[in-house]
Design goal:
Blueprint lengths: L6 H4 L5 H18 L1 H8 E4 L2 E4 L2 E4 L6 E6 L3 H12 L3 E9 L10 E5 L6 H16 L5 E6 L3 H4 L9 H13 L4 H8 L9 H5 L6
Parallel strand pairs: 4-5, 4-7, 5-6
Antiparallel strand pairs: 1-2, 2-3
Helix pairs in contact: 3-4
Amino acid sequence: MTIIKNTATLTSHGSAALRKAALSIIEQALAGADPYGATRRLLRLDGDQLHVSGRIFDVSAGRRIFVLGAGKATYPIAKALEEILGDRITGGVVICKHGQQGALRYSDMVLAAHPIPDEAGLEGARRTLALARQSRSGDMVVCCYTGGSSALLPYPVEGIGLDEKKTVNRMLLSCGANIIEINAVRKHLSRIKGGRLAAAVHPEAR
């Protein structure tokens, strides 16, 4: 499948041979970074065994599987998971950026704002944390978090409202801080970041 849609226009002037070579390199790079393709390459279902990069997980009947995710590249990962696992997925919450096309059958897809969070993202974060807390021993929780999840998954700590979280985000984005510094501040203002979501999952879930 061709990713670049205007190849003819881009190669219609200048050195066509060099432009075609450059576009071929770009196509290969984009294909290699495609989250859907990467998920399909890394995961394989063989009967009741899910193979993930050399590890094997039992997904036989009776085992509950939850999908949690947020980020600008999360939808294709969740889509690939549904194609691989199908109705073995018990449920999930996947938060994507407004404008994301497509639909999920076994997980709820929430559309929210980025880079400044909104109410939809807050509700999605509440539902994500609640679902994580429903996990129990023997369950499998598959997480697919990508870039942008910090804004798409806002859940302020007690005493801070969403409007204040928005103000902090605007300040961080405009002050010149890098993403590591920004996230260092964000995690202290969140009920879900800094490992808190992982801690909400049952310790004997996989």
